[in-house]
Amino acid sequence: MLKQVSLAKELKKYFGFDTFKGNQEQIIQNVLNGNDTFVLMPTGGGKSLCYQLPSLLMEGTAIVISPLIALMKNQVDAMRNFSEEDGVAHFINSSLSKQAIEQVKSDILRGKTKLLYVAPESLTKEENIEFLKQIKISFYAIDEAHCISEWGHDFRPEYRRIRPIVNEIGIAPIIALTATATPKVQHDIQKNLGMLDAKVFKSSFNRPNLYYEVRQKTNNIDKDIIKFVRSQEGKSGIIYCLSRKKVEELAEMLHVNGILALPYHAGMDAALRSENQDKFLMEEASVIVATIAFGMGIDKPDVRYVIHYDMPKSLEGYYQETGRSGRDGGEGQCIAFYSYKDLEKLRKFMQGKPLAEQEIGNQLLIETQAYAESSICRRKLLLHYFGEEYKEDNCGNCDNCMKPQKFMEAQELLTLILETISILKEKFKAEHIVDILKGNETSDVVSYQHNELENFGAATDEDEKLLQAVIRQALISGYITKDVETYGVLKLTPKGRDFLKNPISFPIVKDTDFEEDEEVNLKNIASTSAADEVLFSILKDLRKKLSKKLDVPPFVIFQDPSLEAMATTYPITMDELQNIPGVGAGKAKRYGDEFIKVIKEYVKENDIIRPEDLRVRTVANKSKLKVSIIQAIDRKIALDDIALSKGLDISELLDEIEAIVYSGTKINIDYFLEDVMDPDRIDEIFEYFKSAETDSIDDALDKLGIDDFSETEIRLVRIKFLSEVGN
After folding, report:
1. Which CATH fold would you assign to the domain 7-202?
2. Under a CB-based contact definition with an 8 Å cutoff, are residues 384 and 475 in contact?
3. Mapping DSSP to helix (H, G, I), strand (E, B) and coil, where does residue 504 land?
4. What angle do CA 463, 465, 468 make, to 5 degrees?
5. How do residues 122-146 score in pLDDT, each as one tens digit?
6. DSSP state at residue 110
């Protein structure tokens, strides 16, 4: 045990700070006293200082076990900045040469090094174990300790081997630190590290300066993100995506739209990754687009927004990633884009993993879904998840609290739910309770004969989402608890039992209804666009004039939806015209000049301010599917064989080919048509389209005879016609 020291004085001496944050001082004193310590402190709370200062005050070298090489380098650089001696902090990992490792060992043996950062993988190497046995270890610090738990959001199996290795090297006090841990994860960490008696220091998870919002993920997400980022000019932000591919695509798309954005993911070259990180920290780039590989320990206090392009796999991950904004106590906007389809994809990725792992992953996704869809205070939900009660009804700094809420009485539904949990002896999860009340005869319900219960089908008329909302709000209100050990089994609390005896009013807020958007296609853009009707009419007249001059039907030049889009966004350059749906380079070159000229004059005459700031420049179309279809047609492969090889049915393949020819690319499918259709039939359909007012298949069937021609035949010949006449 170290003698009592004036910690405030030492803090000023080594780090230049006048005061400690939160419970830093008590934590440091506990470490100095030689006790095991567990620290649960949100991002930005100052975890690093909790082991950095005691390492400087204690005899020997502190071993810091940390998961990321980039994180080690950052922290070692930071420690060296506070000290006159470079050798005060070192790291050992796979990035060092043998010569560099020898230098590190020399500094440690001479007593110069107070902090040694190691990755868990490096800690297990025999030569490192043998070396560390020779030195005096002041204590072990386990940073990002949630990596130990399978219930944590970044589980790493090698973290579970730390305790046996510590025993082999030599026993010393342990301080485990994490920014995010539910009660279950906390217990898991302490148990695995053999420190169940450790003193626990738990800071509040509430970050009042952070604004939380969940938006529906639509086909316009890229436009929404560009619009938001442009509104934050001069501010730094992080955008998280789940896949490396999406990181690359989004960073490139932001870049071509004039935003200084850089990608960051584990698949990149280490030097480039490090360079991009440094550019972001030095404000040479305003946005970093990243996977979860970015951020642990990144000490940038003025990140002003964090956007989640995809919902994360767990609320722990979400909380930690959002926690990277506003670390200086200033503004921090946390915006997540939610689509139920994204969660379904994540569930599919889990298939094939061990059953227990799937169960854990699924429970974490259920919590994420609940957070996204709930209409109650997001801060209240998050804090409840981490075992903390937030007593305010309205935080005033999340999307749900900033819009008027509609309450409904749910006393009867809560009674039904609590009764059903009780009847089932508190042995089932929320999904099973909902299935019983809805009268869903699932395999589980039937096998347990729960379809014979009195409550089976008692809430048939109620929406499943409403029942889930009642359960969720009953959890937060303390009527039921969720047993995490058994993957989310619901149990009654004393308060819940009292409610069953004496029911009281239970007002709840209905969940947000996220309608899944259908894929937007060329045909339905027209119905949603706010076109300038005068310009639209002028463009239609121009198209009619051109169609007479060129002797082609108007739809061959541009379809109505393309004209509506022109009358909405006012394109005045060839590049802008090619951003219009259904206008490819070929069409723009062939017909574009006259349309651009008319639009330019109209804009000038009417002093129109164009919605240029809302326009998204797209990266050159790299659709592998379309390119491979064109290549296959060039090689004269039968269309049904192409469809089979691409996993499409013939109708889906024709959709793709139509999109290709409508945008102005010329293709030749004569080889296929001659194989499957009589020449006279081809000619008859082709002649029809020459004089047709519209390219509608229904109109063509009506005119040519629904019994004489099939829809597929007409679509095939229409492709030939558009390609030959229009392109």
Report:
1. Rossmann fold (3.40.50)
2. yes
3. coil
4. 115
5. 888 888 889 999 999 999 999 888 8
6. T
